[in-house]
């Protein structure tokens, strides 16, 4: 009887040792910031929120259409990223949050991104919230600055692109104005899928 019990114990021990370890992500990302819930409307006036993006990998940035410095190149670079992702057949969402929601109504955002050849099938430009909300949201969810410059129609904001995983966690950020690392972004998006 003792031999049978010992034999069963050894079989159990061997089978436990042969079980596969849970898969770890291919890349260890340096950031881990949970995106807070948001509710807004996109360039077509359709609602968009954090729950809309649940289960999807996405790349986000912060822009405004009256920007006289970095937003135009950032938006053109996001359009280029969209093309790079499409060329590699990588499915991901692109999200551009307006930090000037009072001015940036859906129609204005659509014209703005349309001027750089945006494909709106997977790129949402988001507005429809209060100014105070987007400033706090950028600060808390992305640790990014977002504030109106006093006595001006300009805003201080991040110039990064942010990679967000399926759980709504920011895992990486990249330069968005000068020479964005498209190849690395595509590789990192692939590693999350």
What does this structure look like?
Helices cover 34% and strands 22% of the residues. It has a single domain, classed as Glutaredoxin (3-Layer(aba) Sandwich). With 193 residues, it is an alpha+beta fold. A six-stranded mixed beta sheet has the order 1-10-9-4-5-6, with helices on both faces. Helix 2 links the parallel strand 4 and strand 5. It starts with a helix and ends with a helix.
Derived from helix and strand composition plus strand pairing, the structural class reads alpha+beta
Number of strands: 10
For the record, what CATH class applies?
Answer: Alpha Beta
Distance between the termini: 51 Å
Strand content: 15-25%
- What is the domain total for the residues? 1
Looking at the structure, the CATH topology is Glutaredoxin
Average of per-residue pLDDT values? 88
Range of helix content: 25-40%
Computed over alpha carbons, the radius of gyration is 22 Å
Q: Strand arrangement, largest sheet?
A: 1-10-9-4-5-6
**Low-pLDDT residue spans:** 1-25
Shape: globular
Largest sheet data: 6 strands, mixed
String of helices and strands: HEEEEHEHEHEEEEH
Count of DSSP-assigned helices: 5
The CATH architecture designation is 3-Layer(aba) Sandwich
Corresponding CATH superfamily: Glutaredoxin
């Amino acid at each position: 009887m003792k031999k049978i019990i010992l034999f069963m114990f050894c079989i159990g021990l061997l089978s436990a040792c042969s079980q596969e370890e849970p898969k770890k992500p291919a890349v260890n990302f340096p950031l881990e910031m949970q995106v807070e819930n948001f509710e807004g409307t996109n360039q077509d006036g359709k609602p968009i929120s954090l729950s809309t993006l649940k289960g999807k990998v996405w790349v986000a940035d912060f822009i405004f259409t009256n920007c006289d410095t970095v937003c135009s190149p950032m938006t053109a670079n996001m359009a280029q990223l969209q093309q790079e992702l499409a060329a590699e057949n990588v499915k991901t969402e692109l999200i551009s949050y307006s930090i000037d929601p009072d001015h940036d109504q859906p129609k204005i955002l659509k014209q703005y991104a349309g001027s750089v050849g945006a494909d709106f099938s997977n790129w949402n430009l988001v507005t429809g919230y209060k100014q105070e909300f987007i400033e706090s949201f950028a600060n808390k969810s992305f640790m990014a600055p977002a504030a109106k410059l006093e006595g001006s129609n300009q805003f201080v904001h991040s110039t990064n692109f942010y990679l967000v995983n399926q759980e709504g966690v920011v895992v990486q950020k990249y330069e968005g104005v000068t020479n964005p690392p498209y190849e690395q972004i595509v590789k990192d998006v692939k590693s999350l899928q």
